[in-house]
Specification:
alpha+beta, 3 helices
């Protein structure tokens, strides 16, 4: 295992931390909502925050906010999710980079582009679980598979 010096982490922090704060990302769920017999994508906006931990020698990006609207009904088994607005603040780890990845990032000609690719890929591979309301007033967990993600 390659141990990173504090200088390498500080270099990353100085070059990229501001650029990686409060990144607005739009995602589209694999699920679609039905409105008047037509299918509509379910979209959410995510905001992320990136931190540098010198002791653990790791850079971590967290999902800190989810905001979106379910524009119509979604069927889950015999339950039906109703149209609703979803706004959630959280602190869910979405991407963590250490040692060799950080070294690769710092040596890259376009490091923010590479990091962005890693972040979007991590989001697309994530399955989030949101609490949503059904037509009978019940609150259920809805696992959201991400179809695609992109920066706003």
């Amino acid at each position: 295992m390659v141990v990173l010096s504090e200088d390498v982490l500080l270099k990353f922090k100085n070059r990229f931390e501001k650029s990686l704060q409060n990144l607005p990302i739009s995602v589209v769920s694999r699920s679609t909502a039905i409105v008047n017999d037509a299918e509509y994508p379910v979209k959410f906006d995510f905001v992320t925050e990136t931190t540098v931990d010198y002791k653990k020698q790791v850079i971590t990006t967290y999902l800190i906010e989810i905001d979106g609207t379910i524009p119509g009904t979604i069927k889950i088994g015999n339950l039906q999710i109703i149209p609703q607005h979803v706004h959630l603040t959280c602190e869910s780890e979405i991407l963590s980079i250490t040692n060799n990845e950080l070294k690769e990032l710092l040596e890259e000609k376009k490091p923010l582009l590479l990091y962005s690719d890693w972040l979007l890929e991590a989001i697309e591979n994530e399955i989030l679980v949101l609490e949503v309301k059904t037509e009978n007033g019940q609150v259920v967990d809805w696992p959201i598979g991400i179809k695609n993600a992109f920066f706003l």
